[in-house]
Amino acid sequence: MSATISSTGACPAEWRKRWRAEAERVGSTWRQLLDCAEAVLSRLRDKTVSDPWDSGWREAAEKYHRDRAGRVLIVEPSEITTHRDRAAKSTVEALTFALRSRGTAALTEHDTQRRLRALSDQQAIEVGNRLQKLNPEIAPAWTPDEVEILFQARSR
After folding, report:
1. Which of 119, 59, 56, 62 is nearest to 85 (CA)?
2. Does the model's pTM come out above 0.85?
3. CA 142 vs CA 13, 46, 93, 96, 150: distances in Å
4. Residue 148: left if φ>0, alpha if ψ -120 to 50, beta else—which one?
5. Average pLDDT for residues 102-126, to the nearest whole number?
6. Other beta carbons within 10 Å of 18
7. Domain map of the chain by residue range?
8. Which residue, 26, 81, 96, 132, is most buried by CB atoms nearer than 10 A?
9. CB 131 within 8 A of CB 144
């Protein structure tokens, strides 16, 4: 069913018919829906629904902050091993796929060049090694000359 709502916000007639039929099928009415909403709002007004902070959550949060001794971060930066000089694994995989699929011709593509520049020296060596060990059923293994072309392209 395709229809648009008019600028006045009124529902098209076929929508009203559809929802009326659905309400009859499940046995609900607007009155029942409004009664349900009123009951929920009434409980909220009467505060019969408890505040989550009234339970053990407040104590747990206070204990957590006490145990952290004022530290805001869960893990302090000194505890994190950074790999900022390395490209993301997804970058390495995308580069390897491009080179495996299109050979040295892929080295002329902008995305391949960008990914190649993002690699650390160790990652570049690993990519070269992977390309030389390709399974012949997937793609031909690279020769040492092709790997040399890869490293020359990286140094440009």
Report:
1. 119
2. no
3. 67, 74, 16, 12, 10
4. alpha
5. 94
6. 13
7. 13-45, 89-155
8. 96
9. no
